[in-house]
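Tip: read the tokens left to right.
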């Protein structure tokens, strides 16, 4: 089966979905492809900062997402010896220290404002297998499998918004430089105790960062940094001493944690690295978000940078001049901002322990 569109976007995460909305709204025909059978299945960062919030509000999408459910963080607390010793409250002009938005809510809220466009199609359960080029070497489409059927989509521009392990980047032979940061991350999700306030809580365990993030629906997301490559050895040990450190750091979790973290299988391991591409695309193809600049979880910048990428790229595209689009224009507008964010992440990682110096004794 063959399809035709001005733009084919691969990856229905936040950047791909927002870009699809913005381009369809401008009158371009858009086909959005997603490998998963349902939107929002893969875990990604779910915290908006004020920049990501501003992008959504500017395009009148935030209200629909808020109706579906989100949670504003009211404070940031640093803990030592089981007690908060420092609390940071939001600037009154911002009103929060981050907003938890379940990715399913974010994507659904955007698509509610997109699905009515007749120039927009979204194909789920669709995996790109190869790229199509013309005789001049320009990328002009993709071949994919959709529900086990082979389909061909021709387009004037292919967008790779398919994440840190981007198929589009690999098929286009675009090189990526990776940087390890000395730690991996264990994620877990548990119900919040009664009366738990919307907050971010931080502690230092064996010189490594331990973070709690309040989530919508009465949950807490645990983010626990461990030394890079340590998880195989950790899994050979009993989990009880490890979890005891969590309860000691945050005594409020004493009743909750033992019921919901009983084995190492209750954690999800994230291989932490940052990356960047010197080339953000080529003729007929462009990358954005994690596909071109993967962030670490530090500071929750990834989602917001991806939304800003989509906003910026959409501003450069229009129906009449899409073939004249130069990916270098997009790269020049966003590359320095991304480098600045990555530098901020490294600084935060290197200075995190300084918050706890006076608490060591």
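Filled-in amino acids:
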């Amino acid at each position: 089966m063959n399809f035709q569109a001005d733009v084919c976007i691969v990856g229905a995460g936040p950047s791909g979905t927002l870009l699809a909305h913005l381009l369809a709204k401008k009158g371009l025909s858009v086909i959005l492809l997603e490998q998963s059978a349902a939107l929002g299945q893969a875990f990604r960062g779910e915290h908006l900062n004020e920049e990501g919030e501003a992008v959504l509000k500017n395009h009148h999408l935030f209200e629909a997402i808020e109706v579906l459910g989100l949670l504003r963080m009211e404070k940031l607390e640093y803990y030592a010896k089981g007690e908060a010793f420092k609390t940071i409250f939001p600037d009154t002009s911002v009103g929060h220290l981050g907003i938890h938005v379940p990715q399913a809510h974010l994507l659904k809220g955007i698509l509610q404002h997109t699905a009515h466009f007749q120039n927009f199609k979204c194909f789920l359960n669709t995996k790109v297998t190869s790229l199509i080029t013309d005789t001049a070497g320009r990328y002009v489409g993709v071949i994919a499998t959709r529900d086990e059927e082979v389909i061909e989509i021709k387009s004037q521009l292919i967008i790779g918004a398919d994440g840190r392990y981007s198929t589009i980047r690999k098929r286009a032979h675009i090189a990526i430089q990776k940087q390890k940061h000395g730690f991996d991350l264990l994620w877990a999700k548990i119900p919040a105790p009664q009366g738990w306030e919307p907050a971010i809580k931080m502690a230092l365990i064996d010189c490594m960062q331990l973070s709690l993030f309040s989530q919508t629906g009465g949950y807490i997301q645990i983010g626990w940094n461990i030394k890079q490559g340590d998880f195989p050895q950790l899994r050979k040990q009993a989990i009880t001493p490890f979890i005891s450190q969590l309860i000691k750091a945050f005594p409020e979790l004493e009743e909750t944690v033992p019921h919901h973290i009983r084995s190492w299988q209750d954690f999800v391991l994230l291989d932490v690295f940052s990356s960047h591409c010197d080339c953000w695309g080529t003729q007929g193809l462009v990358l954005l978000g994690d596909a071109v600049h993967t962030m670490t979880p530090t500071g929750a910048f990834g989602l917001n940078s991806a939304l800003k990428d989509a906003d910026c790229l959409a501003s450069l595209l229009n129906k009449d001049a899409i073939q004249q689009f130069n990916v270098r224009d997009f790269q020049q507008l966003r590359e320095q901002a991304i480098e600045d964010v990555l530098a901020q992440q490294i600084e935060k990682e290197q200075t995190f322990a300084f918050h706890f110096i006076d608490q060591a004794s």
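The radius of gyration is 21 Å. The first strand starts at residue 2 and ends at 10.
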